[in-house]
């Protein structure tokens, strides 16, 4: 993401589920509105996400990852995620249950903390679930 001027932000949105449900549509529509407001938005999704068809208009940068592989070995993806997060002022991620060794909020937080990034993490929840 190139540096922006003025009041524009570099924002990363992240979702780990592949479905096209209400929360996923909210995140995608949030990204669309942020772009319309002049912000640079990157969305990180599993490579099998059903949102990908809706994101081919080039407004947002789309980054994908293999959901099965990250569940087995999140550390193998840490450098890539960190490089995506590095220029971002904000990352909004939807809170999801742990899959294998991967829990998205903890993983994103560790990428930010371990690289000493200035990125602010916002973990968006739906209905609170204490098992998460």
Short description:
This protein has helices at 22-36, 67-72, 78-85, 104-114, and strands at residues 10-14, 40-46, 61-65, 90-94, 120-124. The protein is α/β, with parallel strands linked by helices.
The radius of gyration computed from the alpha-carbon positions, rounded to a whole number of angstroms, is 14 Å
**What are the secondary-structure elements, in order, as H or E?**
EHEEHHEHE
Quaternary organisation of the protein chains: single chain
Describe the main β-sheet briefly.
5 strands, parallel
- Which regions contain 5 or more consecutive residues with pLDDT less than 50? none
Mean pLDDT reading = 89
Tell me the total number of β-strands. 5
General shape: globular
Strand content: 15-25%
Total count of helical runs of at least 4 residues: 4
Widest sheet: strand ordering: 3-2-1-4-5
Instruction: Please bin the fraction of helical residues.
Output: 25-40%
SSE class = alpha/beta
Distance between the termini: 31 Å
Key structural traits:
132 residues; alpha/beta; 4 helices; 30% helix
Describe the structure.
The chain has 132 residues and is an alpha/beta fold. The chain is 30% helix and 20% strand. The chain has 4 helices and 5 strands; from the N terminus they run βαββααβαβ. A 5-stranded parallel beta sheet has the order 3-2-1-4-5, sandwiched between helices. α4 links the parallel β4 and β5. α3 packs across α4. It is globular. It starts with 9 loop residues before the first strand and ends in an 8-residue tail after the last strand. The model has no long low-confidence stretch (mean pLDDT 89).
